[in-house]
Structures are given as structure tokens and as C-alpha cells.
Amino acid sequence: MHRFYHSNPLEIRQIIILDEFASHHALKVMRLKINAQLILFNGDGYEYIAHIISINKKNIEVEVLLKEQNLNESPININLFQSISSNEKMDIVIQKATELGVSHIQPIFSTRSSIKLSHDRAKKKLSHWSRVVISACEQSGRSKLPTIKAPRSLDQMTKEIKTSKHSLNLVLHPHPHKKSQNLPNNHTGDINIFIGPEGGFTEDEISLLNQKNFINVQLGPRILRTETAPLAIIAILQYKYGDFA
Fold first, then answer.
1. Pairing of strands 46-55, 37-41
2. Which has fewest Cβ within 10 Å: 6, 44, 90, 100?
3. Residue ranges of the chain that CATH labels 2.40.240.20
4. Separation between Cα atoms, residue 21 and residue 103, nearest integer Å
5. Start-to-end CA span in the chain (Å)
6. Residues near 96 by beta carbon (within 8 Å), at least 6 away in sequence
7. Rounded to an integer, what distance in angstroms lies between the CA atom of residue 93 and that of residue 84?
8. CA distance 229 to 196
9. Complete DSSP assignment for 47-87
10. Taking a C-beta distance cutoff of 8 angstroms, is the pair 6, 41 a contact?
């Protein structure tokens, strides 16, 4: 069944009208008809089985039939701090990181970031990125949306971020303290990952992160692009500690 995000609370026997975006997708792309069943989710961890009861030119009206718990969320809490890259690359990172099971995405500006955003552009970007997250959840079967917040500077984040002895704090770097294969065999706490921009973090930025108990980690002998590195490390972490078996 096709899956659609609905931002409001859902209850069995409730009749709702899908928003314009979801209605357009259901009608024009999926070409769903009356009585067709679909899955709704709103971020509470459940899936709601519904069926279409009426269709007009722009909207679809559906009735909620069943509520089922969705058990496919990752058992580990991964927080991704991603340096902002160009439009397409950033969309790919957000989309694929969501598919891979991250819990939180924080876009960051760093010294070598090539993208600069005004306040208004940052608000528009956040709205766009939120839609990317929703679309990735619809596709991948997730019923909880990873949180994504407005861009912050790395300086701000290093002042505000709180780590503990139970968290695993990683910054990808070509000159590592550890290689990925030397990470602990078992870990159940939060995992925080910082990914640099295309030019990498400066040594001062690395020093700031190291002071916050972040360890430099290398994934292999090749230097990965800023849109490749987060997906590689998330997959490794899911394999070591999560649900990639």
C-alpha cells in the first residue's frame, strides 16, 4: 500500500481530507481510486490503514480503519551534524540519512562551507528539507520523522552540544585517532557524527570538537565527498550497533 504523511493526530473511524500535496500525489502519480487502501502516518510511531471514500478535483477524503504499531525504527539514536553543501548534494544526504535511520539532522555552517544562507533563505531551505524527510519516510516505511533544525554555525554547536560518557562522538577526518574498524564492539548510547564541508574542517574546528570529546575517525584510505561520508558511516554504525544484520 502507498504511504502518506498527515501532520495531525489520527484516530480509528476518523474521516480526514488529505492535504493538497498528498492528494495530488495520490491522484496524479499513484492514480488511486475510491475504496483503494493506503497507509497514513503522523510521526507517532504508528501506521493507520485508511481507504478512500470520496475524490474531487483537488482533494481526497479518507476514513481511518486500523491502527498498527510500526516496529522498523532503528534501535540506536544517531544525530547527524552535516556541513551544508549544494542543493542536490544536501537533499541526497538528508534523503538517504533518513532512509538509513538517523534520529536527528542538524545542518551546520563551518569555515570552509561554500554555501551561505540569509535568514529568509534558511527558512525556505528548512521547509524544503522537511519535505525531503517526509518523502524519504513515506518511501522507506518509517513512521517517525527524524527532526531537522535550522542551520547553525559550528561554533554555536560546539558551545551548546552536550556529550556524556555514554555517547559515541565522532568527527570524520583523514588523520584519525581511530579507524572505523576499531570502534567499540558494543554501544547503546547516543551517537553524534560531525561531517565537514567539501574542503574539510579546519584544524581549529577539529580542535574544538576534540575538546568536546569527539574522536577523529577515518573510514578508509580514500577521501570521501561530503555527501558520501555520512551515508558510509551511518551504514557502518547500523551494521555494528543497529539493525543492519
1. antiparallel
2. 44
3. 3-69
4. 24
5. 26
6. 136, 231
7. 10
8. 9
9. EEEEEEEEE-SS-EEEEEEEEEE---S-SS-EEEEEE---H
10. yes
Residues of the chain within CATH 3.40.1280.10 domain(s) are 78-241
Q: What residues pair up with 60 in beta bridges, in sequence order?
A: 55
72: how many CB neighbours lie within 10 A of its CB? 12
Report pLDDT digits (tens) over 189-237.
899 999 999 889 999 999 999 999 999 999 988 889 999 999 999 999 9
Distance CA 47, CA 72 (A): 11
Q: Is the pTM of this model over 0.85?
A: yes
Q: Lay out the sheet containing 46-55: strands in order across.
A: 3-5, 37-41, 46-55, 60-69, 15-17
Residue (of 123, 54, 136, 52) closest to 92 by Cα position: 136
CATH, range 3-69: 2.40.240.20
SS3 27: helix
Q: CA-to-CA distance for 175 and 220, rounded, in angstroms?
A: 11
Q: What CATH number was assigned to the domain covering residues 78-241?
A: 3.40.1280.10
> What are the distances in angstroms from CA 204 to CA 25, 88, 159, 163, 211?
47, 28, 14, 19, 11
